[in-house]
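Hi there,

I know you've been waiting on this one. I reran it after we fixed the sequence typo, so this is the corrected version. Both the input and the resulting structure follow.
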Amino acid sequence: MEPNSLIPTPDSIPAPAWIFILLEQLLFLLHILLINAVLGGMLVMLFRKSKNTGENHETDFRKNAAKKLPVMIALGINLAIPPLLFLQVVFGHLFYSSSVLMATYWILIIPLLIVAYYGAYIHSVKLFSCPFFSRASLAISILIILYIGFMLVNNNSLMEQPEKWTAYFENRNGSILNLNDQALWPRYIHFIAASLAIGSIFFALMHHLRAKKGEEGSEQKVTFFLRIFAVVTAIQLAVGFWYLLAIPSEFIPAFMGKDLVSTMVLMAGIGAGIGAMISGFLGKFKATVAHLLLTMIAMIISRYNLRMMYLDDNFRFSGLELAPQYGLLALFLLILLIGIALILYMLKIGFNKSERRVEP
């Protein structure tokens, strides 16, 4: 069967596609920064707790960090919805199809997210009163987030490769995963490495804020976590090159000079990543964060460029029917901006109260 015949007809869109793509990429950046910080922060906390050094001066910091994790998970989940919605406006006919192919695994994400949230909450509440239960809850939350990340990578991989959908005729149980995609594992490991890096930056940020308040020893902790970030970033760069070599060979030249835009964006991302690594080793917090943000932006754009290369034979923007509804779009965007502002305000209040409740 011709794989293209399996692709559903796309729905009409209420505004030019570039608007939704831009919004998707922007909001995905916010989402992935939060989720990376959550997963990386959890991994760092689990590792540091497992050492059981008994350092009393870290009690206050760990309690604050643990209290922030459930809030960040809830916020990360909510920030996942807008980019997912914008993705579905343009690529919905592809995304829904790939979701159906792996529906058995996909549908488990919602109940597992609830368990992960409560795991982070239990970890916070039982941090010192029941350390084993706290650590076990944290480990369960980590495993769930790793599972969800793997399923999201699989879904995106299947969405971008409709030629793999013919597997449905041999497996109609909704349990199809794109495990034979050689780029799947480096793509997933790249996500885990990014989480460790951004989790380290998250802890460096917390100590940086404490250092500004004059807390003794915080500057040394900032340097410590920046160096962890630098080491993990070096590993992440290596995984990134593995990922580049694992994509279909016909796409690689586009990132090596054949497509000037794709090449420049990727090179900018690599350069910014190297800059972030160097700044981290030197202990320069602001420079590290600035380079990290530039790296994330470049990599998200490169991710989109690669998606369009995968879909080149199966998708055209010219095939999307435009049915303008600019008034509704403007109203939606206004409500979205108000919602983001309110969330940021509540987050500020929640974190400030969290800081004040902890006894030094």
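Quick highlight: The longest helix spans residues 59-101.

Best,
R. S.
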